[in-house]
């Protein structure tokens, strides 16, 4: 299925294990990911479903990765933006962001992300040193991607309230417990975050939160409908989460699922989710 000609995939990764290890790929369930995934692998799959631009997102908290991703964006027409990583708590974060923007491909730097989901402090985003970093991200004209767990959503909402000048992009719907059929506290957190105008949500990462042994599209509907209602199409955007999605679904299947979950919408609303929101939010 072609989701939409000219669609934007706002969330994918690449890695080369000969360059550096992806230390999060552990255990038999993730074993299929323990190989290289390249832009050349992704491109034919993306273009086959109508995706012509993508946003490449950080995978590890290693400073060297972001310059490498910027160089990839410079070399590949498919990549229209990069969400990289830098140490938000560094006193030199503003200088480092400026340096990254001056590198080859620096114009493709659109946002910053940190693996907040791995931080033991549920209010990590509200730490004073982190908030200085968030202010620097806003000053640099970038957005901030949130990869968090449902219990961290209240801190996300508070951070967005404290930094109205910064756009916060929620990855993977905040990882709702789809496999368990859980709804709270996720739904309360989602609605509080969506109530703030400087927040956006990616329709991404749902298939890997579902039951890997027997999920179906109907299992996802309750969650996609919730974010559609909370954020609206103008603050919602499609992301594949390739290649992580390949643990349970192909790129084409993920695109088809997104199309089915949004199929009740009008053409212009689908256009927002599959292209317009991403173009505006990331400045593609």
Automatic annotation (TrEMBL):
<feature type="domain" description="Amidohydrolase-related">
    <location>
        <begin position="8"/>
        <end position="284"/>
    </location>
</feature>
<dbReference type="InterPro" id="IPR032466">
    <property type="entry name" value="Metal_Hydrolase"/>
</dbReference>
<protein>
    <submittedName>
        <fullName>Amidohydrolase family protein</fullName>
    </submittedName>
</protein>
<dbReference type="InterPro" id="IPR006680">
    <property type="entry name" value="Amidohydro-rel"/>
</dbReference>
<dbReference type="Pfam" id="PF04909">
    <property type="entry name" value="Amidohydro_2"/>
</dbReference>
<dbReference type="InterPro" id="IPR052350">
    <property type="entry name" value="Metallo-dep_Lactonases"/>
</dbReference>
<comment type="similarity">
    <text>Belongs to the metallo-dependent hydrolases superfamily.</text>
</comment>
